[in-house]
Automatic annotation (TrEMBL), chains A, B, C, D:
Sequence similarity: Belongs to the class-V pyridoxal-phosphate-dependent aminotransferase family.
Example GO molecular function: alanine-glyoxylate transaminase activity
Name of protein: alanine--glyoxylate transaminase
Enzyme Commission (EC) number: 2.6.1.44
Domain Aminotransferase class V: start-end pairs: 46-291
Leader sequence residues: none
Cofactor(s) in the UniProt record: pyridoxal 5'-phosphate
Species of provenance: Helianthus annuus
SUPFAM superfamilies, per the entry: PLP-dependent transferases
Positions of substrate binding: 347
Keyword annotations from UniProtKB, A to Z: Aminotransferase, Pyridoxal phosphate, Transferase
N6-(pyridoxal phosphate)lysine: residues bearing it: 201
Pfam families associated with the record: Aminotran_5
């Protein structure tokens, strides 16, 4: 059943699904249970309270949906919008592109703002669109917080600032799939109306839970939204929340216990420490890339992503060969370049349950792979650059002092 | 994290989620992986071939969707039908009722045929509707194979016979959630167009995978169906099947390996032996119910379900109290009566990874619960009746002879 | 790797190794760790304190030895005695016989007191030996608390009474392998000098840890005992206890965490409740045996064991066939008759992580097996007898009220 | 229960216990079983055949004893020797010292040959002792293949050569704890009479199984050896081997299944490939040490160990501080210096289930630790040196080509 055995650990550096903590694996290693017994509602109640913290919201309503990020997107859109609604959406890479594709196929009138891949969403265009929209025909602004394909982080605070500037009532819908629990995200402060993530990203769980959080304004919108929906309908959830049984259909018992364990670890580390760790790992990665003489796909520092780095390879190298080679020789899993940047970039995911020495092992591996495929890297250079930074910045482990 | 500890095993006799084999728990006890490495497509390819066997189809196309049974329903409907399409659907209990609710909310024109709860779908009415529909305005016949709320199994062969009799081209959509892998189900022979189940039922996995299988005719219908859909869209799956990467979005690595293990066990036992085991456990349960002097909610033998038995309690007893008592005193998980039969029936699920002595422990527990709540059961009577049958019918374990 | 697959759970009713709670399996599902880091000593310190509670001692010194019950025996003997020392020891079944065999092979002068198998240790003979031994040549009295082969529990309080009566200074060494954590055991109150058990018995862990507890008097004896020993030498443990690193050689990390989880569950249930549960399960089993018209191997009620029941079969039946049949047809694991009672008894172990419905499933299975092998049992009779008692005696589950 | 949480994986580089493969963890994640059912003997039989391969013996008899390496030592000695027997034994570090301590305490007349720590066993002295011993008073030569405290590998082929040269009949007893399954070891070719290892070393299992293999000559010796023993007595094992039930007392079910999985992985990789991997990892480590400007505790290349490297630190640094720091800041577990080399060396274990990128992460971590404690290492230097070698020497993963 394990087709591709190799000695030692797999070095998993795709930007999701990411490494699962042993504590979470243990929590999930269990039989099914009756989800209508008092135990599961009690657990769910705790989870719904706890999960709000990772969104930094007190007023939001979370939904733990047995689906993926793609389903979470659909949940966000269909519950708040009606077919034909005008929305502004940005394409800056493969995942924002896929979201826009979904938005169109679900029947919305999508006003697409495209950027060159490697750049952030063009918020000036957003500003002019909002400024022009005095009739408030724009019903929602949809944006990915972090584009996983290019390693670009958009500035959500600025989006809110623009919305406020024009006193525009559009809903503010955020794909936080590769950001929430890893990057600084503030649902209430930034007035985000729907934010969402997937369990297999910074939460470090298996795939299978779409975590969606809705502001009161989004909940209100859901009462009149006309998009047809059942599986993703918040109404059914809210009905069962009220009854105290919580689940309109069967949840994954294992993922619920896993989520509890994952949140416990995040809170034990401290959410802000988790975010600081991602900043550190992202910085170290970028220093290595620089030392290798390679370019970050992300064009400006303001957009640098602390969860994934897309590295541009020289034109004479096929970046897919780097990914293949990593897997076939070093048991190293890197991310492919996708669509427009296929063959041109490879990606190092550095999110979730991960520490410095794991990353350094990956960076050493990338160096050998680069050499394998003909890039004249100085072996050790990236690791040296990362270590010089890390050795000054890694904190002591609080539980061990 | 375990709020409700009790010594010894939980006796899980709800009709899903059901007991997971240790072999499957072991297979799922693993870290995430890159789903774009060659390993996961290779595994998926095997799974898609293997999973057809549980549907008894060679021409069908299976989809392993990260969702629940409710999502699988939605996938079946939205891929084959367009809003406004007329469909015939049956309400015979809570789950068929919920499916009809979904059908309506998704915009179909649902021609509902209701039966008293405890009876099967009224196929005479189906026959007359099809007979009258010479214009072929009926686009689909939707039916649950086994109604989990009442323990009623519908006769699908008869449905096909009726469709054939009137040479009606309607699609034949089947909810096999509490039947497939436990009851006799023959997709190709019965000309079923879409069949579906959920991982947490007879497959004995955690919740989180909706398994949908589409006939060539259903696949063809999906090309013109106008229901808006993205997450559930087969088109995206088919595109990735063709590319050999299989996944339009991230699957649960753990459920894939778990499904492999679950199918391996089913094939090791032999699917027909699995079905025979369910017949045996269902029969034993019904003999116990009879010995207790209680009535099966299912009114006729032809509809008896071998996966779940709904037991009618005397009017002076609240069946919910039986379920509560089982859990609070005996670590026994039984199914509640739902909706119209709430308080009137309790349910014994006897599907999935289960054997005779487990069932007998449950039956002994039910007897004590019945006595607890004031029903004058003769302790041991149900177990005796079940044993008398089982001792003559349990086969030797082939691997141990 | 699983040679003998059968659907559903194995019904494990041998008197050890016993069922492991899922919580313990989860706790043990972990990688190795450096046992010289601060984490393992901290855990060990807690364990050594906690484990004293199951011996009901405050003055004893526990040792968690990577071995089995046989090794724990050897540890008890070689640390407290010198070759040639006279000891009184009882043979009442296979395990006490094996302990005596060990005592002889380790060079002690064993004064053996034999009883018919099915009877307890003859304490009158002990009394006369102690009375006669005014020179105090007897260095130790060795006794099994519960003989696992025959289901006989010896009265340890009486042993202490006799020792006190003659003011005899002999050490009091107790094999508590199938008693501690299941039967009433009071190390301090009964003045036991060494008591021991194995992890796979009532503690419900995997095999691999011998748990030995020594009184101050035993510790003192160990300073002059001349039996050669290294692996089992308490001296090495005590040296490392003093240093605070605890381990003279590598422990099983997994068993340490498992022991913590197992003790936590025992304390959550309450040790006295655990013992009461065993009394209840033992009583129910004996009522079933009586209902079947079969005899308990144990000849008098005062010796009845609440952890294992040896059932005598009629002479025309080979009890081994019962065990084989249970395994081959019902996935039921019963204990064989050993040595003198081979073929004559089969054993039902009812100790450890076990509850009433599990036992009832087993009893129903035994009934069918009995019928299979030609014993004219009335099916349901044992279950009925057990249920009549249990339904009056099972407490509500405290965490669920 | 997890006292010392830190994000990401623990980097386990002590020379045992080592990292357990996920496949092995999965295989061990299981309930207890009746070890007297046919399943466990069948499994055991396979294991006893398979385990011979890691000793490279066809004539040896293996014993899988529920104990640790210390117990395995005791088993080797007490089964083949009688108190007072003269044996030659070498002290070259802490573990050989402890074995000699055991030998003395077990009553043997130990002729100790000491070397400076960091040097191998002085085989010239062995030669002269054997030469002088024309009366064959020397009953055994005891030697550790690999001294885990100093990272010194003794040349066993030379030992055999010397024994043969003097046609000396002494038994040849080998501690292979940190060698077998990692270093080249040839029981039959080198005429080793007893070889032993522990499960938690290169086999990459949890602690708890001492694996001992005896040559026909050793088995013969065991029939007359007068050392008192029961738990460790091969006689009991052999008796049960003959009966086909295999176990004189209860084994760990989990470790048996774990051993099967561990051996399967070793055979899948190929034992010689496993050994080659250890050579590669050892070489890479030594290159890093050299690049850091530090000295290997092992004084000559002929003794270099491919399973553990003891690194000498400058006198102004306390090596224990390095270990502490690694654990407290980097989640890196290194080995302490022991006894004579306490404070002077730290150890990098590079054995068992481990690959190149894991090692490189460790080496990067060691560099940062060295800098932390005031050693002027050039960050990246060791990794660069290791990578330069590894990038030329790592083979493609056969299952992935």
């Amino acid at each position: 059943m394990d087709y591709t055995y190799a000695p030692g650990r797999n070095h998993l550096f795709v930007p999701g699904p990411v490494n699962i903590p042993d504590q979470v694996l243990r929590a999930m290693n269990r039989n099914n249970e009756d989800y209508r017994s008092p135990a599961i509602p009690a657990l769910t109640k705790t989870l719904l309270e706890d999960v709000k913290k990772i969104f930094k919201t007190t007023s939001g309503t979370p939904f733990l949906i047995p689906t993926t990020g793609t389903g979470a997107w659909e949940s966000a859109l269909t519950n708040t919008l009606s077919p034909g609604d005008r929305i502004v959406s940005f394409i800056i890479g493969q995942f924002s592109l896929l979201w826009v594709d979904q938005q169109k196929r679900l029947g919305f009138n999508v006003d697409v703002v495209e950027s060159e891949w490697g750049r952030g969403a063009d918020l000036d265009v957003l500003a002019s669109k909002l400024a022009a929209d005095t009739a408030h025909t724009i019903k929602a602004v949809c944006i990915v917080h972090n584009e996983t394909a290019t390693g670009v982080t958009n500035n959500l605070a600025t989006v809110r600032k623009i919305l406020d500037e024009y006193q525009h009532p559009a809903l503010f819908l955020v794909d936080g799939v590769s950001s929430i629990c890893a990057l600084d995200f503030r649902m209430d402060e930034w007035g985000v109306d729907v934010a969402l993530t997937g369990s297999q990203k910074a939460l470090s769980l298996p795939t299978g839970m779409g975590i969606v959080c809705a502001s009161p304004k989004a909940i209100e919108a859901s009462q009149s939204a006309k998009s047809l929906r059942v599986f993703f309908d918040w109404k059914d959830y809210l009905k069962f929340y009220k009854m105290g049984t919580y689940w309109p259909y069967t949840p994954s018992i294992q993922l619920l216990y896993g989520l509890k364990a994952a949140l416990d670890l995040i809170f034990e580390e401290g959410l802000d420490n988790v975010i600081a760790r991602h900043t550190r790992l992202g910085t170290a990665t970028r220093l290595a890339v620089e030392a290798w003489g390679l370019k970050n796909c992300t064009q400006k520092e303001e957009w640098f992503s602390d969860t994934v780095t897309a590295v541009v390879v020289p034109p004479y190298i096929d970046s897919s060969e780097i990914v293949r080679r990593g897997w076939k020789r070093y048991n190293l899993s890197l991310g492919l370049g996708l669509n427009k940047v296929a063959g041109k970039v490879f990606r190092i995911g550095h999110l979730g349950h991960l520490n410095d020495l794991q990353l350094l092992g990956c960076l050493a591996g990338v160096e050998m792979v680069l050499k394998d495929v003909g890039y004249p890297v100085k072996l050790g250079s990236g690791v040296a650059a990362a270590c010089a930074y890390l050795q000054n910045n890694i904190p002591m482990i609080p539980s061990r002092i």
